[in-house]
Amino acid sequence: xxxxxxxxxxxxxxxxxxxxxxxxxxxxxxxxxxxxxxxxxxxxxxxxxxxxxxxxxxxxxxxxxxxxxxxxxxxxxxxxxxxxxxxxxxxxxxxxxxxxxxxxxxxxxxxxxxxxxxxxxxxxxxxxxxxxxxxxxxxxxxxxxxxxxxxxxxxxxxxxxxxxxxxxxxxxxxxxxxxxxxxxxxxxxxxxxxxxxxxxxxxxxxxxxxxxxxxxxxxxxxxxxxxxxxxxxxxxxxxxxxxxxxxxxxxxxxxxxxxxxxxxxxxxxxxxxxxxxxxxxxxxxxxxxxxxxxxxxxxxxxxxxxxxxxxxxxxxxxxxxxxxxxxxxxxxxxxxxxxxxxxxxxxxxxxxxxxxxxxxxxxxxxxxxxxxxxxxxxxxxxxxxxxxxxxxxxxxxxxxxxxxxxxxxxxxxxxxxxxxxxxxxxxxxxxxxxxxxxxxxxxxxxxxxxxxxxxxxxxxxxxxxxxxxxxxxxxxxxxxxxxxxxxxxxxxxxxxxxxxxxxxxxxxxxxxxxxxxxxxxxxxxxxxxxxxxxxxx
Amino acid sequence: xxxxxxxxxxxxxxxxxxxxxxxxxxxxxxxxxxxxxxxxxxxxxxxxxxxxxxxxxxxxxxxxxxxxxxxxxxxxxxxxxxxxxxxxxxxxxxxxxxxxxxxxxxxxxxxxxxxxxxxxxxxxxxxxxxxxxxxxxxxxxxxxxxxxxxxxxxxxxxxxxxxxxxxxxxxxxxxxxxxxxxxxxxxxxxxxxxxxxxxxxxxxxxxxxxxxxxxxxxxxxxxxxxxxxxxxxxxxxxxxxxxxxxxxxxxxxxxxxxxxxxxxxxxxxxxxxxxxxxxxxxxxxxxxxxxxxxxxxxxxxxxxxxxxxxxxxxxxxxxxxxxxxxxxxxxxxxxxxxxxxxxxxxxxxxxxxxxxxxxxxxxxxxxxxxxxxxxxxxxxxxxxxxxxxxxxxxxxxxxxxxxxxxxxxxxxxxxxxxxxxxxxxxxxxxxxxxxxxxxxxxxxxxxxxxxxxxxxxxxxxxxxxxxxxxxx
Lengths: 537, 472
Description:
The complex is a heterodimer of chains A (about 525) and B (about 475).
Chain A: H1 3-15, E1 19-20, E2 34-40, E3 48-54, E4 61-64, H2 71-93, E5 96-104, E6 111-119, E7 125-127, H3 130-144, H4 163-176, E8 185-187, H5 188-195, E9 196-197, H6 208-215, H7 223-232, H8 251-273, H9 278-318, H10 326-345, H11 357-381, H12 383-391, E10 395-404, E11 418-423, E12 434-439, E13 442-453, E14 460-466, E15 487-491, H13 519-525
Helix pairs in contact in A: 2-4, 3-4, 4-10, 6-7, 8-9, 11-12
Chain B: H1 6-10, H2 31-48, E1 53-57, H3 64-77, E2 82-86, H4 89-102, E3 108-111, E4 129-132, E5 143-147, H5 148-151, E6 160-165, H6 173-179, E7 183-190, H7 217-224, E8 230-232, E9 235-236, H8 244-251, E10 258-259, E11 267-270, H9 278-289, E12 291-296, H10 306-321, E13 324-327, E14 335-336, E15 342-346, H11 349-361, E16 368-371, H12 372-375, E17 380-386, H13 397-400, H14 402-408, E18 412-421, H15 424-430, H16 448-459, E19 463-465
Parallel strand pairs in B: 1-7, 1-8, 2-5, 2-6, 3-4, 3-5, 6-7, 9-10, 12-18, 12-19, 15-16, 15-17, 17-18
Antiparallel strand pairs in B: 11-13, 13-14
Helix pairs in contact in B: 2-3, 3-4, 6-7, 8-16, 9-10, 10-11
């Protein structure tokens, strides 16, 4: 945790209210997000209990699995979910704009520009918390390898059509969410705690209700009191006043309300199956419907408060102005969305269970690059975050007090002006360290030359040699060199990230990494555990 | 292994016999012969073996670079051109200089980046070394060296028959993936006890996969090729007899090594007597025993604890002022302890920056001050270390990382002085290791918590309490 966020947390404790960590919004918030508030069944990993889902805050679609252990009912839930999510995703797939991408020409081996489609906008899924993101991943994994009756008529439990497709999309959203700065799938608690510091721990911030309580405690109460109430307060019936954002449910709810309701539902189903004539069946169908309606009401009562809180949280976020680089990062999300759309259209198989060596290395490289890019862009977009970097010695701001013309020592001398900046920051400048400032949105590089104490003040004079972006001539271009009196901010970190070296294709995976993925790799790298005595007790 | 926590406090006395100092030193052990035997076996496997790879584990200062240079020259002499992959430009330049020293006639190529100042200017003085940013310009040379990052950009060339990968335990698996297509077989050399490579984003997704891209190159290599011969260099030439047993015990419990020198072979003495202050007392203790712990009163502090930083700077100042001289097997006469033979090690970069500022305030220049990551592979006569847990309220995985402490406590030829706030054993007791268990991941021994305890138990016997004077 940086010193600035520690300070913000301390201030939050003292003032009883969440403190701003940012002055602009650093994540894209769609004009038409799809909010998804899922609940899962206790003790059954990956067995959904129900969900509220939709794009209209006043009209969520309630999906419920009245008996979560019943595969058919679970499939029915997933099919319904696909009916909501896939049309939403498809609505972004057809509006495209022309774009260019550099590709390696297979014949000449050269890098050439190709005209491609880029979706003009992309879908955005919003879940309440990090656990929700994990649940999206889990659903994706549980669905994408299912076979429909059309794909495999022999399969014993065919999945409803479109369920595998939903699995592939949810997997894509879940993987994209691991890329720093991406916004295709947002966990609201993560985004909110990026922008505000509360007086509680990071773990406690995962409770959406408690987090929002810190941000706007009711009059006369502190954030800590309001958060505690949001977490723990129970009504006369012993139930939480603010149900957790899920997907896990409160045990008191499971034991006192849900379990008896499911039991009634099970009994009604058995009685219906045992009905001896039409009249009796009609009656018992009525009982079953009533039992199901009861479970639906229970699920809605636990998801609706979270649903409303999520939309409220989105309002809070939208009130912040968007950071300058957010659109740039959203464009990357659009590329990611377009890419997966194309893979689905091209009939490619679902994402494999495990990444192969090359895919894993490529993903890690991309994420590290995006993390560095995100750190730089957020600081450049937001003076408060830049202040944190300045405090950490990774940037400095000050006034230009002197500019001296100087030139490089070569046959065709180029301008290398010396610029002296007075600052009260304490940058960690090493010998000939490179520093960068933003000049018309592009980074201009300078080299650290020397540092002098300013007598009798806490300030220092940093002398830099400007190295680039001054044009090709002997004289620097107009406006490309800082002038005396300019207030500038230099960073020790780079503003843009270089791409890494290209990795081999998966079919050229070297011997050090098990060779090309295929049967040999599958046997050496993913050998199943040997059966032990304990396995067959 | 001895990790009785209570001994940490029970053993608190200023002077006394140093446990672990010279016990177990076997006069019949001939370090030179042992090391030569190991080196011969390694070279035999490298030059004449049938396996595609050979792995060499080397403890700190065991002659890893010497081995790399020798193997490279022998391969070249046998008419087998090779590529050498190191991790940083400084490491590459260092190897180039050593190769040229050893054999000025060898045809050596230094492949470098196209940035400004891509290599050490000292290379321009070496006539036998050709330098280029393009691999094609260096084709046909006996030995071509570069960083893994630069090699990764080399495409469409005939693969080398041989490669040497230096600091292979600090190389990430994905970096090896990018370059492994360039060679047919390779010698992997590295120190398993130093800092593991890291990723700046989470990589839990791949934990347990044999080719986890964030794991070390060696763990991926051995997971896929478990039959490869593994060798170990048995002797540390850097660490003195006072340090090798502790470092071996604490960080290499299952692969012990010895010091190349005996208990009396290295001595450190000071011309100016102690002024009785804490810094002087700890310097004397370290000169006598090889270790010294300057313990400040317990306190929770920010990372750049001003008192601890100032204490570090004072120790360095006094080391220089007291006209130290070291005696070692390298020279017949005592060698003056100068600024370039002293280093300060910290866990964080801001701590290093704070120490540099404090040293400048005391008029000290030319002392290396850096983080553990950047001190890897370097060697000094005396090191002064800010303990990673000093002043902390918690012990995170970062601060407990085995390799971090190992690097910090294994850079010295004579003595190591650790500066720390009191209360480390209590902190360790309050923070047991709680890293999540990842299925399929090989558990590394020892864990950082254990190594911290072992080193602390030893350091505590060389403790000098010190209450810094108030600066107001």
